[in-house]
Structures are given as C-alpha cells and as structure tokens.
Design goal:
Blueprint: E1 14-18, E2 22-26, E3 31-36, E4 39-42, E5 45-50, H1 54-68, E6 77-79, H2 87-90, H3 93-96, E7 100-104, E8 107-108, E9 111-118, H4 121-130, E10 132-133, E11 136-137, E12 147-153, E13 156-157, E14 166-167, H5 170-177, H6 179-201, E15 205-216, E16 222-225, E17 234-238, H7 254-262, H8 275-293
Antiparallel strand pairs: 1-2, 2-3, 3-7, 4-5, 6-7, 8-15, 9-12, 9-13, 9-15, 10-11, 13-14, 15-16, 15-17
Length: about 300
C-alpha cells in the first residue's frame, strides 16, 4: 500500500498556494508545478485524513483528458514525467513522482467554466425554486438528473478558500473578462464537454457536469489549465444505474458526502475519516479511471 501524501514539502521551490487538493509551486519565470496531494474535501472542508493514491489517479486522469482534448484547445501541460523536469524538481522525486504536472505559467481567468449536460446539484435546486439555472429559463417539467435540452454554460466566480463560488449569469462573465473572451470561453467549454461526454458515454459513464479552468498565454491564446474532467471537478454517473427522477450513484466524492450526512457533519470542522470510507472512496476513483481509459492507474 502506498503512503498518503497529505502535504508536499519542497523548500527549494517557491510555494505559491495550497488549495483543497493541489500544492502549487513556482519553478522558474516560465513554469509552475502542480502537485496533486491525497487530501480530500467535502462541502469546502478539507478532511484530516487523506486518500492514499488519490492524487496520482487525479493526475493520470488529467493527463488522459489533456491528450484527448488537444484538438479542441491548447493546454498548459509541459510534462508529467519527472525525468523531464528540472533538477530542482527531480530532487523531490519521492514525493512528486506520478502526482505532478510541470505547466506553463499563464494569466488565469477568474471564472470557473462550469458546463452542465444534466440537471442536478445546485442547478436542480435553483430550477425547483424558480425554473432557472444561473437565471437562465428552462422548459417546465424537467425532472431531477434529466438530460438538459441543450448543454449549458453556467459560470461561477472563483472564491477564496473557505468561501463558496458564486454562480453567475453568462452575461456577467462578459463584464468580468470581456465579451469576446467570454464568448470564446463558453464556446470552447461546451465543445470540450460535448467531446468528452460522448466519449465517456461509450465507456459506460455519464458526465453530468464539469468545471473547466482557463488561462491566457503571452500571445493571447486561450489555454485549458488546472485539472480536467476528474471525479473532483465533475459528476460521473454509471450508465448502468442511471434513472431520471432521483439522485444518482456516482464515481465522485458522493460516498464521502453520504457518510458525512449520516453522521450529521456540521459542514465546518475537519474530521478524521474511517479506513472503510477512505478505501471505498479510492475504489470509486480507480473504477472511474479504469472505465475511462481501459487501464489500471499506476499507484507505484
């Protein structure tokens, strides 16, 4: 069994930020290092326990999608092979192997590009109340988890850790990043989702919704950044058990969320998780990777 990495420690690299899962370092003037730890969060709370190997699976899933989606838009990945990274990074091989991406430094756009193909989660809650998602009117009579009449771009603002992202109408996106860039982001995000969703469906997985992040390089080109179509940034449902009108089984953190609900979690306090919850959560990540790629993840 591999040892969990809760937090990376690379003192010769400049630590830029620690997110819920990723540690971000500056390597040089042109590149950054994304390290996917084994931390896990739910309801915007980072748990005290880590899911050993989760960061490696997330990294390998992102690698797969970066390659698959390359024809749609450029991405920021330089290499995921530690042997191809600078010596200053390679000295931390024991921590970083299999869970790190060397990426181009770009200007990050302050919008979460959320795309929905099915009505669920916060979108379903809003629709139940007022017949809209992100203030966009939808037909009457939709049922929970139903496929939407069209793929929706429903952006949100990026929140600092501890705060919640705020869903916004696409028109507000244009105010924040400019009309032309907002239209490009919406078009590309919907194209990425549609291409990935069609592929995944053929593998027995429904991608109900997902979150993309984008940046702009020095030449002004839009680039796909961060993680891509992982169980942390997406809702993956098995087609075999899909049924409209209810919540769905999933390959994401639903197992953890269900456990937290069962113990009346206060949605504020980090807690230790039982080994069974950690093991079963990891199994869901592995199952999603195997279904999508046809291969077992490398957890060595």
């Amino acid at each position: 069994m591999i040892e969990a990495l809760y937090e990376s420690n690379c003192p010769d690299l400049k630590l830029v930020a620690r997110g819920k899962v990723r540690d971000l370092y500056e390597v040089d003037a042109e590149s950054l290092l994304f390290v996917a730890t084994d931390r896990i969060s739910a309801y915007d709370v980072i748990m005290k326990s880590a899911v050993a190997g989760k960061g490696k699976i997330l990294t390998q899933i992102s690698q797969f999608w970066f390659s698959f989606l390359q024809p749609v838009v450029q991405n920021h990945l330089i290499t995921a092979n530690i042997d191809e990274m600078p010596a200053i990074v390679q000295q931390y091989r024991d921590q970083l192997q299999g869970r790190s991406l060397l990426v181009k430094k770009v200007e990050v756009l302050p919008i979460e590009a959320i795309v929905r193909g099915y009505i669920t989660g916060s979108g379903w809650k809003e629709y139940e109340k007022q017949g809209t998602v992100c203030d966009m009117a939808l037909p009457e009579g939709l049922r929970e988890s139903q496929k939407l009449p069209r793929v929706l771009f429903t952006p949100s603002t990026k929140a600092e850790y501890g705060d919640h992202d705020e869903n916004i109408h696409p028109d507000k996106c244009a105010v924040i990043i400019g009309e032309e860039r907002a239209h490009e982001m919406a078009r590309v995000a919907q194209e990425l989702y549609s291409k990935a969703a069609e592929y995944a469906l053929g593998k027995g997985i429904i991608i109900a919704d997902t979150k993309f992040e984008f940046g702009v390089d020095k030449q002004g080109n839009l680039m796909l950044i961060d993680e891509v179509l992982t169980p942390d940034s997406s809702r993956f449902w098995p087609t075999a058990s899909y049924k409209v009108g209810r919540t769905q089984e999933s390959y994401d953190k639903q197992y953890l969320r269900d456990y937290l609900t069962s113990i009346d979690f206060d949605m504020q306090t980090p807690i230790d998780l039982p080994p069974t919850v950690l093991d079963n959560t990891l199994k869901k990540y592995i199952e999603a990777y195997v279904k999508l790629t046809g291969n077992r993840p490398d957890l060595s």
